[in-house]
Write a structure and sequence with these properties.
heterodimer, A: MetI-like fold, 10 helices, B: alpha/beta, Rossmann fold, globular
Chain lengths: 217, 237
C-alpha cells in the first residue's frame, strides 16, 4: 500500500476510534462533576504537550509484546499491536484524542442549558434530551473537532515511529515516507507528499473555520 | 375537568440567599409577584425539579414529587409540568410543529401528533409558522409557539417564568387573554411569575407576593395590588 493510502486509512481508523472514546469523555466532562475529573482532564490532554518519544515509550510499555494488553491482543488476533498497522492506528489515535475531547466538550458546553431543561420538562429523559437537543445543536462543533482530529492523525510522526516503526507498505505513513525520501535525496517524492499533506491540512482548517463561525444574530 | 392543587413547601439556600416559602396553588392562575431577585424563578425551578431544594415538599394532590424527609425526588421528565421560560427556549433546530410535538405522548402515531400540533398552532394563531424555524419568528409569534408547545404535553401543572417580559403592552394583553382561556380549559394549576401589575391584574385568580425569599402576602390580585400601591413598595416598573 502506498504511504499516502496507508496514511488516509490509518487516519480514518484512528479518527473513528478517537470519536467514540473522545466523545464519550467529552460528554462526561460537559455533563457531570465526578471525583478525579481534574486528573482525567490532565491525562487526556497530556499527549498535546508531551514529546512524542515519551508518549511512544509509554505506549511500548503498555502495549508491547510482553505487556498484558499486548499479549492478550496477540492471543486473540494472532498479531501484535506494536510494529503493525494496529500500532500506527493507536499512535495516531493518542494524538487525536485530546482534540476530540477538548473541542467536543466546548461544542457541547456551548449549547444553551435552558434548551436541555426545556426538553426535560417536556418529558424527555436525560438521554433523549441529549440525543435530540444537545447533540444536534453541537453537531457542527463536533464535526469540526473530528476533522481537526483527522488532520492531526494524518500528520503524526514521532509516536508512529516509536510504536509502529517505519516499515514500507506496512506502517510507513506519508509523514514517515517524507522523512525517508529526504534522507535518500528523493526530493521530488518528498515534495509530492508534502504538497498533498499541506493541501489536506489547508482544506480541513478552512472547513473547520467555516463550521465554527458564529452565526450572525 | 378539575385538577388537583399543587402544594409547595420549599427551603433553598444558595450562598447568602435564602428562600423559604409555603403555599398552595389550586387550579387556575396563581401569580407569583415580586421584585427581581426575590426568589420567584428559584421557586418555579424547584417545583419543576430543575433545582433540588434543601428541604421541603412538593405535591400535586396526593402525588408527591419531592419530599426531603422521605427522600422522594421525582426526575423532571416524569413530573409532566410545563415550563415556559423567560427565554422561551424554543428548539432552534426544529420547526414550530417539531417543537410542539416534542412533548407529546410518543405512543401516538406521527401523523396524529402532527395534526394535533397544527390544531394547537391554529388556536394560538401561528399556524402559518408550522414548518418554519424559530429564528424567523417575531417576538409574539415565538411566544405563542412556546405556549402551544407547553400545552401540547397535556401538563399536570403549568409554570410560566415571566414569559411576556419582552412584549409590548398590546401584545401582552392579547397573550394574557389566550393564557386565561387555556387555563380554564386545562383546569390545572398555573403559576405565573411576573413583576408587572398589569399582568398580575389581567391574569391572576390569586396573587402571592414574595420578597427577599419570603412570602409577604397572598390574596386577590385587586386588593393586594391596591394595598401594594398604597404602601408604595415598588415591585413593578
Amino acid at each position: 500500500m502506498s504511504p499516502l493510502a496507508l496514511s488516509l486509512l490509518v487516519a480514518a481508523a484512528s479518527t473513528l476510534l478517537a470519536a467514540i472514546v473522545g466523545l464519550a469523555i467529552a460528554t462526561l466532562f460537559a455533563s457531570r462533576r465526578f471525583p478525579g475529573r481534574a486528573l482525567l482532564d490532565v491525562l487526556v490532554t497530556l499527549p498535546l504537550v508531551m514529546p512524542p518519544t515519551v508518549l511512544g515509550y509509554y505506549l511500548l510499555v503498555l502495549l508491547g509484546r510482553k505487556s498484558v494488553i499486548g499479549r492478550a491482543f496477540e492471543l486473540l488476533t494472532g498479531s501484535s499491536i506494536v510494529f503493525t498497522r494496529t500500532g500506527a492506528v493507536v499512535a495516531a489515535t493518542v494524538g487525536a484524542l485530546p482534540i476530540v475531547v477538548k473541542s467536543g466538550r466546548a461544542a457541547l458546553e456551548e449549547v444553551d442549558p435552558r434548551l436541555v431543561f426545556a426538553a426535560r420538562t417536556l418529558g424527555a429523559s436525560p438521554w433523549r434530551a441529549f440525543v435530540t437537543v444537545r447533540l444536534p445543536l453541537a453537531a457542527k462543533g463536533i464535526v469540526a473537532a473530528l476533522m481537526l482530529a483527522f488532520a492531526r492523525a494524518l500528520g503524526d510522526f514521532g509516536v508512529t515511529l516509536m510504536v509502529a516503526g517505519n516499515i514500507p507498505g506496512e506502517t510507513q505513513t506519508a509523514s514517515l515516507a517524507i522523512f525517508d525520501a529526504i534522507l535518500a535525496q528523493r526530493d521530488e517524492e518528498a515534495l509530492a507528499l508534502v504538497l498533498v499533506l499541506t493541501a489536506v491540512a489547508t482544506v480541513v482548517l478552512y472547513t473547520v473555520n467555516k463550521l465554527t463561525e458564529r452565526p450572525r444574530t | 375537568m378539575t385538577g388537583e392543587p399543587l402544594s409547595i413547601t420549599l427551603s433553598v439556600k444558595r450562598g447568602s440567599f435564602h428562600l423559604d416559602v409555603a403555599f398552595e396553588a389550586p387550579p387556575g392562575i396563581t401569580i407569583l409577584f415580586g421584585p427581581s431577585g426575590s426568589g420567584k424563578s428559584t421557586t418555579l425551578a424547584a417545583i419543576a425539579g430543575l433545582l433540588p431544594p434543601d428541604r421541603g415538599r412538593v405535591a400535586l394532590g396526593s402525588d408527591v414529587w419531592f419530599d426531603a424527609d422521605l427522600g422522594i425526588d421525582r426526575p423532571v421528565h416524569l413530573r409532566r409540568v410545563a415550563f415556559v421560560f423567560q427565554s422561551l427556549a424554543l428548539f432552534p433546530h426544529r420547526t414550530a410543529v417539531g417543537n410542539v410535538v416534542y412533548g407529546m405522548d410518543r405512543r401516538l402515531a406521527r401523523e396524529a401528533r402532527r395534526t394535533r400540533a397544527l390544531g394547537l398552532l391554529e388556536r394560538f394563531r401561528v399556524a402559518h409558522l408550522a414548518d418554519r424555524r424559530p429564528s424567523t419568528y417575531s417576538g409574539g409569534e415565538a411566544q405563542r409557539v412556546a405556549l402551544a408547545r407547553a400545552f401540547a404535553m397535556a401538563p399536570r401543572a403549568v409554570l410560566l417564568d415571566e414569559p411576556f417580559s419582552a412584549m409590548d403592552r398590546e401584545l401582552r394583553r392579547s397573550l394574557c387573554d389566550d393564557l386565561r382561556t387555556s387555563a380554564s380549559e386545562l383546569g390545572v394549576p398555573f403559576i405565573h411569575v411576573t413583576h408587572r401589575r398589569q399582568e398580575a391584574r389581567l391574569l391572576g385568580d390569586r396573587l402571592i407576593c414574595i420578597d427577599n425569599g419570603r412570602l409577604v402576602a397572598h390574596g386577590l390580585p385587586e386588593e393586594l395590588l391596591r394595598l401594594h400601591e398604597e404602601a408604595s413598595i415598588d415591585g413593578s416598573r
